[in-house]
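So, could you explain this one?
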Amino acid sequence: MSIIAQHGEIFIILACLFGFFMAWGVGANDVANAMGTSVGSKAITIKQAIIIAVIFEFLGAWLAGGEVTATIRGGIVDPALLEANPQLLVYGMLSALLAAAIWLLVASAKGWPVSTTHSIVGAIVGFGAVGLGMEAVAWNRVGTIASSWVVSPLLAGTIAFVLFKSVQHLIFESHDPFAAAKRYVPVYTFLVGFIVAMVTLTKGLTHVGLDLSFGQSFLFSLLIGAVIMGTGISLQRRIKYERRADDHFGFSNVERVFGVLMIFTACAMAFAHGSNDVANAVGPLAAVISVVRSDGVIDSAALVPWWVLMLGGGGIVFGLVTYGHKVIATVGTGITELTPSRGFAATLAAATTVVLASGTGLPISTTHTLVGAVLGVGLARGMAALNLSVIGTIVMSWLITLPAGAGLSILFFFTFNGIFG
C-alpha cells in the first residue's frame, strides 16, 4: 500500500488547514495593501473595504485566477521528476503552504506589506532545490517571475506618475477645479471599467466557457466601461459644491468627486488581486488534492475543485477582517500622504499592471506593484512627499521574504519526510 493511499485523508486535511492559514495570511497582508490606498485616502471606510473585498476578490479568483494557479501548481517544480515518488510533491506543497503562511503571520504582525507571491514561490523553490535536486526547479520560469518583481513596480509607478500628472494638469491647475473634476472624472471612470474588462475578457474567461475574439472583447469592454461611467456620473450628480473657509481653491470638493471614483478603483483592485493572488493559497492545495485523489498520479493540469476556491476566498476575507488593519496603515498612510485623487492614480495603475500579469499567467507581486504605484504618485509631488524610512523598511522586508520562505519550507519538508516517509 502506497504512502499516499495510506495517509491520503490526513494529507488532504493538513492541506486544507495550511491552505486556509495561507489564505488568512493573504487576507491579512495582501488584501490589506490592496485596500490600503482606498482606506488611507478616506474614500471608503474599513467596513466598506471588507464588503468590496469579499465580493470582488472572489469574482477575480473565480473568473480570472486559473492561469496563475496553473503556474504555482506545476510551473515552478517539474512534476515529471516526481512520478516515482509522488509523496514528495505532497510533502513539498504542504511545507510551502505552512512556511509561507508563518512568514506572512510574522510580517502582518510587524505591519510589513510583504509579497505573498514571493513567500510561496520562495517556499516551492526551497523544497524543490534541496528536497528534489537543483534540476527539479524550472529556473527559467523562476527567472521570469523574478524579473517581474522589478518590472511590475516600475511599470505601475510610471502609470501612476503619468495618471496623477494628468489629474494635476487637467483638474487641479484649471481655473475651476470642481467643474473640471465633474468633466474629466467620468473619463477616468470609463478607463477603470474598460481596462479591467478588456484584460479579463481577452485572457481570463476561457475556463468558464466564454471564448471571445479580440473584437468581441473590445466591444464588450467598451460597453462595460460605458455602464460604469454612467453609474459614476449619476453618483457624482449628488455631490454639491460646499464652501469652506480653509479651502480657497475648492480642492476638497474635487476630492469628494474623486472619492466616488475610488469606489470603482477599489473594486478593480480587489478583482485584480483576487485573480492573481488566490493562486498563492489555492495552487499548492489543489496540487495535494489532485495527487491524493488520483493515488499518486501527478497531473499539473487537473481542475481546481470549486470548494477549494471557496476555502481560499473564505480564508482571505477572515484574514482581512481579523488582522488587516496594520498593513492598511502602512500602505495607506505610511509611504506618502494619500488623498482620493492620489489614491485613484495609484490604485488604477496597480490594478492595470496586476490584471495584465494575470492574463499572461505571471504570478507578480501585488504588493510590489501597489507600493511602486504609491511611490509613483509620491514622486509626482516631489521627493519630500515620500517617507524614506518606511520605504527602506518595506524594501528590507521584501529582500528577506524569499530566503525566509525557502528556509522554513526546507525545514518542514524534511520534518514531513521524517514523519510519513
Summary: The chain has 14 helices and no strands. The radius of gyration is 22 Å. The chain has a mean pLDDT of 78. The first helix runs from residue 3 to 40.
